[in-house]
Design brief:
By secondary structure, this protein is of the alpha+beta class. The protein is built from eight helices and five strands. Helices cover 44% and strands 21% of the residues.
């Protein structure tokens, strides 16, 4: 049986995207559906259109580059933004096609996590980053190293998250973040 790779790409059950210098070169139907946009509108656009803020786009791109350079691949859970402005949790996995120039070209998969993890509270960009790392099971010190901020600053953001989610412990906060309460 001959496999039509174009059809497989187009109809894949996860959002797929080919990139060059953080610009969308091609994408499949699932990605368009997930972000509420059309292929024609997404192709040629910077990945920035998929992020809640330009700041998050820049910070994450800078943080991903050395990991892509060292390992050739990257994945995380993060909050992304649909074309209508709605934010949602998304699992993103990518591979650099050239590890020496990690943003030069790549292939990325996006999985919508909103049914398992709805976004209920209004969070700042930094709160979203801290929340994502808490869900990965990281400590304040690990989060601080990852985000290049002090662990005390992480604890301030954790306290804000606990207030917003009315959580009494970190475990309770993680549970509420996962449940979207």
């Amino acid at each position: 049986m001959d496999v039509d790779y174009r059809v497989a790409f187009t109809l894949a059950p996860v959002g797929l995207c080919l990139s060059r210098n953080r610009v969308i070169v091609d994408c499949n139907e699932q990605l368009c559906e997930m972000f509420g946009s059309s292929r024609e509108l997404l192709i040629g656009q910077s990945f920035q259109v998929l992020y809640p803020s330009a700041d998050e786009y820049e910070r994450l791109g800078a943080r991903m580059a050395p990991i892509l350079n060292a390992k050739g691949h990257y994945s995380d859970d993060r909050i992304m933004k649909r074309a209508n402005g709605e934010v949602f949790w998304c699992h993103v996995t990518g591979r650099a096609l050239n590890r020496e120039a990690p943003h030069e070209s790549g292939i990325w998969a996006f999985e919508d996590l909103s049914s398992q993890r709805p976004v209920k509270a209004e969070l700042t960009a930094r709160e979203r980053e801290v929340a994502a790392r808490l869900l990965d099971g990281m400590t304040s010190k690990e989060i601080g190293r990852t985000l290049a901020i002090s662990h005390r600053t992480v604890e301030i953001y954790r306290a804000r998250l606990m207030r917003k989610y009315q959580a009494s412990t970190t475990a309770d906060l993680v549970h509420k973040l996962m449940a979207g309460n």
